[in-house]
Amino acid sequence: MALALKNSRLSIEDYLAGEAQSAIKHEYLDGQIFAMAGANERHNRIAINIAFHLRDAARGTPCGVFIADMKLRIATVNSYYYPDVMLTCSESDNDPIQKTAPCIVAEVLSPSTATTDRREKVLAYRQIPSLKAYLLAEPERRHVDYFLRDETGEWQQGTLGEMDILGVDCGKISVGLALDDIYEDVNFYI
């Protein structure tokens, strides 16, 4: 006779305690955890390029740029994610383990995460009151989709064109990103 498996949910406290000791990062979604995959060279270059341009804009301000290892807590969907890049400008968002009020979040897509980044995370990230922009950069070609919150609070979706500059106002700073910034030194022929 087969035994029924108990549907157990991991508490946030147990997740955080385990994550502090784990060699592998895990994202947390309402009691379930999901191991994170590693990234290739293009993925890293794109994330670093985005972080570099955000950091350059944030210099001398209380804004902070975080890459890959900083957790993003979204209480409204009971989750923790590890965005590839995020910019936060809220002086009260000062927890050393997690952030809750980013202005910009960027994900570099991969085959194993693209669906999650385009569906689950779009819905979750839109719940963050401080978020102004969510970027999705493809590593196989020069292509960035974005979601921008307009002045009325509505979300607009688009694709960054070759001659476009994506402008985001984060209160203390304004950021402009172009495809050339995001894909600088990225070799698509490796």
User: Class in CATH?
Assistant: Alpha Beta
Summarize the main sheet.
Answer: 6 strands, mixed
What is the count of helical runs?
5
Low-pLDDT segments = 1-6
Structural class category: alpha+beta
What does this structure look like?
There is one protein chain. With 190 residues, this protein is of the alpha+beta class. Helix content is 23%, strand content 29%. It has 5 helices and 13 strands. The strands form 3 sheets. The chain has a 6-stranded mixed beta sheet. A 5-stranded mixed beta sheet has the order 2-1-5-4-7, covered by helices on one side. Strand 1 (26-29) and strand 2 form a beta hairpin.
Keywords summarizing the entry:
190 residues; alpha+beta; tt1808, chain A; six-stranded mixed beta sheet; 5 helices
Strand and helix layout:
Blueprint: H1 12-21, E1 26-29, E2 32-35, H2 41-58, E3 64-67, E4 71-74, E5 79-81, E6 85-88, E7 98-99, E8 102-108, H3 114-118, H4 120-125, E9 133-137, E10 144-149, E11 155-159, E12 166-169, E13 174-177, H5 179-182
Parallel strand pairs: 4-7, 8-9
Antiparallel strand pairs: 1-2, 1-5, 3-6, 4-5, 6-8, 9-10, 10-11, 12-13
Structure, briefly:
The chain contains five helices and 13 strands. The chain has 190 residues and is of the alpha+beta class.
